[in-house]
């Protein structure tokens, strides 16, 4: 059987507060029922910063500003979607900080966001950054 690849591109934010990392639980796609960083794909004509801010607000209810680019990574995994058998996901990661004024968290987001201990993961991510 021949593999048919779907290429996905996204921008994702790392927001840390009180030594915890904000994550969301994915409800669809290849990462369904897994925790992930807030973010997603740019819309038509949208730059990376705009996409990051929009996706963060949609998924967490928070307004953020981009700080530092941490790195870029790609992932390949099996995923049956439309005529595709696999996905090749390219991701750009940024550190973000929250603006003092935040959006109200809509009810649709309740239970989807979570604070995770990040000490080990952050060290690992920074170590990975130097090898990218």
UniProtKB/TrEMBL annotation:
Residues 4-132 form the Nudix hydrolase domain. Keywords: Hydrolase. The keyword Cytoplasm does not apply. It comes from the Bacteria. InterPro entries: Nudix_hydrolase (IPR020476), NUDIX_hydrolase-like_dom_sf (IPR015797), NUDIX_hydrolase_CS (IPR020084), NUDIX_hydrolase_dom (IPR000086). Gene3D superfamilies: Nucleoside Triphosphate Pyrophosphohydrolase (3.90.79.10). One of its GO terms (molecular function) is hydrolase activity. It holds the Pfam family NUDIX. Belongs to the Nudix hydrolase family. PANTHER family: ADP-RIBOSE PYROPHOSPHATASE (PTHR43736), DIHYDRONEOPTERIN TRIPHOSPHATE DIPHOSPHATASE (PTHR43736:SF1). This is DNA mismatch repair protein MutT. It comes from Jeotgalibacillus alimentarius.
């Amino acid at each position: 059987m021949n593999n048919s690849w779907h290429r996905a591109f996204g921008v994702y934010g790392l927001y840390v507060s009180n030594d915890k990392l904000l994550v969301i639980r994915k409800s669809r796609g290849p990462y369904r029922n897994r925790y992930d960083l807030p973010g997603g794909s740019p819309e038509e004509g949208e730059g990376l910063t705009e996409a990051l801010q929009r996706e963060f607000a949609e998924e967490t209810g928070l307004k953020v500003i981009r700080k530092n680019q941490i790195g870029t990574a790609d992932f390949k995994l099996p995923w049956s979607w439309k005529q595709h058998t696999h996905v090749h996901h390219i991701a750009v990661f940024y550190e973000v900080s929250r603006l003092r004024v935040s959006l109200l968290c809509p009810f649709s987001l309740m239970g989807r966001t979570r604070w995770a201990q990040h000490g080990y993961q952050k060290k690992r991510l920074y170590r990975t950054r130097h090898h990218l």
